[in-house]
Specification:
Layout lengths: L1 E8 L7 H28 L22 H25 L3 H22 L9 H9 L3 H27 L3 H21 L7 H21 L7 E8 L1
InterPro entries: DUF998
Protein name: DUF998 domain-containing protein
Keywords: Membrane, Transmembrane, Transmembrane helix
């Protein structure tokens, strides 16, 4: 009798099954709905709205045209992120994946709040800055705090997903993604630049689509482990 090794499914991961398929549909529909609302809301704004300069929040802000298009988009994104958090918990069985799912659920809840607590401005310009210097509404304060809880937990989620996945390449891809997300978030916070809107849209692309890729895409499928098998 000799000992050999063979690959067996990783016991730290569960097959997605029907539940995973349903969660994937909800996640993709919600997040795609957010970006569809983003495009539609942008089209509905006056020519003065600049996607390169102005925040996404301005599309749902006070003074925006048809603000509830973007409000709906935020709520769709929240639903998509929550479904993705559940998908991570279903697909992976590890402490790091559980932490990632929890962080993403926090981000989902904050996204829902940020959409309903509308910002005070539509445009990211000097007039808005002057207005906020004089007075800022309570709902705008809530929006700002909720936005922080959208971005920071979502970036940390990417970090913990990098730990949860199997394979050096997948881990490296997610680690680099987390670094890029952080850099883009910091650039977005530089409100004095002319590209804050562009940076915010780029970071949203990464923050919203990376978790469902890990939770549902075959490329990030839980790996296999090499286990000893006795052979006669």
């Amino acid at each position: 009798m000799t000992l050999d090794t063979t690959y067996q499914p990783d016991i730290a991961a569960r097959p997605a099954g029907r539940t995973g398929a349903v969660l994937a549909r909800v996640a993709v529909t919600g997040i795609a709905g957010f970006f569809a609302a983003l495009v539609l809301a942008t089209v509905l704004q006056p020519p003065a709205y600049d996607s390169v300069r102005d925040y996404v929040s301005g599309l749902a802000g006070v003074g925006a045209h048809h603000p509830y298009v973007m409000v709906t988009g935020f709520e769709l994104a929240a639903a998509g992120l929550l479904a993705t958090a559940a998908g991570l918990a279903v697909r992976f069985r590890s402490v790091s994946a559980g932490i990632a799912a929890f962080l993403l659920a926090v981000s989902a809840g904050a996204t829902a709040v940020a959409g309903l607590a509308r910002f005070d401005c539509t445009f990211n310009d000097a007039a808005c800055a002057a207005k906020l210097e004089v007075a800022i509404s309570q709902h705008a304060v809530v929006h700002g705090r909720a936005a922080l809880l959208v971005f920071v937990p979502a970036i940390l989620c990417t970090v913990f997903m990098a730990v949860a996945v199997r394979g050096r390449r997948a881990t490296a891809v997610l680690a680099v993604t987390a670094a890029v997300e952080l850099a883009l978030m910091l650039l977005t916070e530089e409100a004095g630049t002319s590209y804050t809107g562009l940076f915010q849209r780029l970071v949203l692309l990464l923050l919203l689509w990376t978790p469902p890729a890990v939770a549902f895409h075959p490329r990030f499928a839980p790996g296999s482990v090499r286990v000893p098998v006795s052979r006669s």
